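Following the same procedure, backbone shapes were mapped to integers, as reproduced here:
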Amino acid sequence: MKDIILDTLLDTIKILPFLFITFLIMEYIEHKFSNKSKKKISKTEKFGPVIGSLLGAVPQCGFSVMATNLYVTRIITLGTLISIYLSTSDEMLPILISQKADIKIILELLLTKIVIGMIFGILIDFILGKKNKKETPKIKDFCDEHHCDCSHGILKSSIKHTINITTFLLIITFLLNAGFYYLGKDEISKIFLKDSLFSPFISSLIGLIPNCGASVILTELYLEGVVSFASCISGLLTSSGVALLVLFKVNDNKKENIKILTLLYLIGIISGILIELISMIF
């Protein structure tokens, strides 16, 4: 146990500077371009899912939370909302960078999420048609109260994000190290049904947890080789940070919220199964 704790502390301390620098850069990007991005999304309808999926790839939950508010006020369509949810990387990119993951792995994960977001977003809008716009009251930004703390500047936000993720990462790393020591990587892989067509069902369910922890867990498990690429993608597709909490908080139509949640889960499963099948064939 002493070795497990020591390894956990060393593993976490080593990535701490990378996490802070990454969050500092990402916070700057989010603050610099969030207002411009909001205007671009709200003015586009036909190409909403395309633009949305690209913006959603920016780390953290800022755009997915913003998109939730825009959808509830019917400024954007359901397809655009789903495309942003699917492409949202949340804490995936900071973890990948801090762990010095291969650039090929980073690009594969990001591009796969973006493309799937575009495809399903366009498909949803095509099937359901354009959502009728209606005037609704302005909605308070839930992100400032529960997650991002963006109003206090990028330095404080970056420190807060770094502390939160480092604490969570410390716990996850300890559990993984203990699991690898007592159970072995093979046994943990069996729990997540690695290389099985049923694995995306579990990963997609984990991704729905409305917290940055979901993307952290899935990314760590993928880097450790516990889950396959397909399973990781399934979970990361449904992982939109606190956006789902915001949706249920600000949207009074609970049935619609459940439908969106179910749709997101099904897309995660279908995408994971298709990717798994393709990998088996090729």
